[in-house]
Amino acid sequence: MLTASHRQLLRVISESGPLSRTEMAVALGLSKAAMSGLARDLIDLGVLHEAGTIYGRGRPSIRLDLQPEWAFFAGISLIQDPAPMILCDLGGKVIAQIDMPLSRDPQTIARLIAERLPDLFKAHPHAAAKIGGIGIALSGFVDERQATCIQSTLLNWQGVLLAQIIREHTGIDTFIENDAKAIAVHEKLFGSTRDQQNFSVVSLGDGIGCAHVIDGRLYRGNHGGAGEIAHCTVEPGGAPCRCGKRGCLDTIASMNAIKEMARAEGFACTCLSDIEKIASTGNAAAINILHRAGSALGLAIANLIQMNDPGLILITHTEDGLQGLFGTVMQQAIETNVLPRYAGQTPIRLRRVSSDIWARGAASIAAHNFLIGPNIN
Amino acid sequence: MLTASHRQLLRVISESGPLSRTEMAVALGLSKAAMSGLARDLIDLGVLHEAGTIYGRGRPSIRLDLQPEWAFFAGISLIQDPAPMILCDLGGKVIAQIDMPLSRDPQTIARLIAERLPDLFKAHPHAAAKIGGIGIALSGFVDERQATCIQSTLLNWQGVLLAQIIREHTGIDTFIENDAKAIAVHEKLFGSTRDQQNFSVVSLGDGIGCAHVIDGRLYRGNHGGAGEIAHCTVEPGGAPCRCGKRGCLDTIASMNAIKEMARAEGFACTCLSDIEKIASTGNAAAINILHRAGSALGLAIANLIQMNDPGLILITHTEDGLQGLFGTVMQQAIETNVLPRYAGQTPIRLRRVSSDIWARGAASIAAHNFLIGPNIN
DNA sequence: GACACTAAGTTCACAAAATGAACAAATCAA
DNA sequence: TTGATTTGTTCATTTTGTGAACTTAGTGTC
Question: Is B212 an interface residue toward A (CB < 8 Å)?
């Protein structure tokens, strides 16, 4: 089996991509001798493979990387209907994708997953035997063992042992996680922030999600609630939110809220771009909606930067139109509300993502547990 | 010398107080056999001593604890004039306290410290030989090696290698840290939050400081700026702050700001209690100042809770009067701006501290580096 | 007070993990 | 072709930790 040193090595490779044995030895603080043995173990197991040779002065160095086909992971997003189900390899590449009907009943969900799994493996029969785990992304609070959904308003759950139920139905190791936190783990493991030790992800879907990676690990907070930026108050005494309090960011800057405010103004729009278009014609109401939303989101992100000084903010969005007024005002609001000393010091990276991002995040949760181990000290 | 296992053991003891060898073995995940050896090493070195016996069924367990006289630490606060200098032992107990004149010149500071050290040791000559380090608390940004002051507005510094300069003058290992972060380390090492893995400290002195402990370690942020809550915007477009932006918490809720606003109203007051007294007579202007300040601070803390879900918020204050209107409004504002699901889930602990808290924090920085090692991965 | 019972802590032979130094391998530069 | 240079392996040795048996120091009971 894998020792702690093997796990550490896998973590380093997952962070810093293909590395030579010597580089790994330095990164782990081990001798070349120890490294040699660890690498052989993992190559013999089929986890690592030699991927390219770097020529320089002296003996060329052989870069080792993860063998993508060593293990596969299923990821399911329970925040969409139908619920996307994807299969990805150890490199994070999606190799199959299907849908399943969304249910709110844990037993039904588990049964549906078990039923649909064979379809996911249809084109990749070799992957079935090498399945490393199932990951589930959902909206709500999850315990630190990534097994129990403590509470979910959307699914109307309270203390649901979802991971175990799915494990019983499928016989496969299963982990669940909050949607935004799943995206953060995805970005850390497979995305553009692999080598960042401290960053925050803000995910703009229908709602606003946020999660922090601190010291290279997902920070879940003491009750699993870190990153609940959507319910930060940005307009004290503002409009009531479905959470029960007032002036939450969610009521002003989420795509749902923006669209609802636009509909209330009588605009026919189904996406952000529609409203941006109307605003670009000079319509005051549309401009106002977008301006207010952008300022609010920017203020919240600025406060996040002040509070946590992350190395990077990654904003993932599933809608087009972030180059418009909303996005521009947001970026300005960040600039004006961050300590001048900091302004521009924290890169803000915008990335348009497809709506399978949550399923991919879910699969990443499974991959993380399989490869590096649970996210616990 | 001390191995990594010894350090881990010291960390556990510093967190969980006196423990028996068996308890330590469990806490470290080691065998009783390995534990036995580690404990003997540290007892022979004089770091640990047997402190009391617990009788139960079976052989009594002997609790081991740090030997407070094993090492001593000097702490100096550069945020006050005169600058307090304290000497404390490994248990965090202050055994001597003197003042030194505050200077803004690094060389002068180092010289003054070297000159005053003998006075600090006067009543404790045995401590001089056992000095484990010097810690300095200052207002500003410090690098992750706790050696260089990257920037300090108060001291008008930029890139000052203070630790090294003091080391050269005194021959003693020296570390510097931001004031609020020093308090956080103090509370983690010696205070009431020793066993908490995730908490934030909000320190109300003349200004507002804040620092986070995450996964048991001080989280400094990517540029050493984590916890800059004082310059979170709470009133967008509000009054200009000396930092260059507008509506910062610092302009509304710091003791300096409160007193200034009170003076602008023509009140003769030198401390919070004075204004509280005036407000308690029904004076609208005084009530307004305190209400506005309390709401703003409460809002910022609520946003901190939403953002980071800490296990505890410790508010340290050097002034009396936190039981009055300001404190009450603050607590209410926290409650109303936190997700109802969370409300009351995050304990808010208020603690009146004396003004030597920063010097004590500074000494704790030295103690932490000496005992557990640098705060780096 | 003798005896069993319980749990803490120690000892010791052994296993696992990492090291350091010598060495083999694979290239570039002259 | 030769030397320089750097990667990676091998192996004897050291360091670190384990498991099982053992010692120790008490409590509880008859």
Answer: yes
Residue B161 CA to residue A171 CA, distance in Å, equals: 58
Q: Looking at the C1' of nucleotide C11, which residue has the nearest alpha carbon?
A: B33
The side-by-side arrangement of strands in the sheet containing A141-142 is: A141-142, A149-152, A157-160
Q: For chain A, what are the domain ranges?
A: 4-66, 71-186+357-371, 197-311+319-352
Backbone φ and ψ of A82, nearest 5°: -70, 160
Q: What is the 3-state secondary structure (H, E, C) of B107-155?
A: HHHHHHHHHHHHHHHCCCHHHHHCEEEEEEEECCEECCCCCCEEEECCC
Per residue in B293-305, pLDDT (tens digit) is 999 999 999 999 9
Answer for the pair B113, B127: CB distance below 8 angstroms, yes or no.
no
CATH code given to domain B197-311+319-352: 3.30.420.40
Q: Which residue of A has its CA nearest to B340?
A: A244
Which mean pLDDT values do the consecutive 10-residue runs of chain B (377 residues) have?
A: 94 95 97 97 96 93 97 97 97 97 97 97 95 97 96 95 98 98 98 96 96 96 95 94 94 96 92 95 96 98 97 97 96 94 87 97 98 80
Cβ distance B236 to B154 under 8 Å? no
d(CA A146, CA A373): 12
Dmax over CA atoms of chain A, in Å, equals 71
Q: Which residues of chain A have pLDDT under 70?
A: 376-377
Taking the Cβ of residue B219 and every Cβ of chain A, the question of whether any pair is shorter than 8 Å is answered with: yes
Asked whether the domain spanning A197-311+319-352 has the same topology as the one spanning A71-186+357-371, the reply is: yes
The Cα–Cα gap between B203 and B226 comes to 14
What does the pLDDT read at residue B1?
Answer: 81
DSSP state of A375: S
Could you please state the CATH topology (level 3) that the domain comprising A4-66 is classified under: Arc Repressor Mutant, subunit A (1.10.10)
Top CATH class of B71-186+357-371 equals: alpha beta
Q: In 10 A of CB B319, how many CB atoms?
A: 18
A74: helix, strand or coil = strand
Strand-pairing partners, residue A218, are A213
CB contact residues (below 8 A), chain A span 9-68, against chain B: none
CA distance B165 to chain A (A): 26
* Contact present, A179 and A79 (Cβ < 8 Å): yes
Alpha-carbon distance of A181 to A219, in angstroms, equals 9
Chain C bases near protein Cβ (<7 Å): 5-13, 16-22, 24-29
The bridge status of strand A199-204 relative to strand A313-317 is: parallel
CA-based Rg of chain A, rounded to a whole angstrom? Answer: 22
